[in-house]
Design brief:
4 strands, Aminopeptidase, 2 helices
Length: about 90
């Protein structure tokens, strides 16, 4: 697992999906803000995720960047069927 090799106290978000009709209302942002607080209280130092690079997901890239995530790596996974970028956001413990 890419993040465990690099960060001992990491929280990994596999995916966040918001129904099309509910997008733009801050649901995902509130979910992440709550996660940051819970992770901080549990002693974690970083929240991480992956975002598709191929097929691209520019909305997710922009969303994570706006939350303070930075791109920290990339990989081709699932036998070459999917390309992803890894993102991380340090949080104060």
């Amino acid at each position: 697992f890419w993040f465990r090799e690099r960060c001992p106290r990491v929280v990994y978000v596999d995916r966040v999906v918001v129904a099309a009709a509910a997008r733009g209302r801050g649901h995902a942002r509130r979910l992440y803000e709550d996660l940051f607080e819970q992770a901080r209280c549990a002693g974690h130092t970083m929240v991480t995720c992956e975002v598709n690079a191929d097929p691209p997901n520019p909305a997710s890239d922009a969303f994570h960047a706006a939350l303070g995530f930075a791109e920290v790596g990339d990989a081709v996974i699932h036998g070459g069927k999917k390309s992803v970028r890894y993102w991380a956001k340090p949080i104060a413990a």
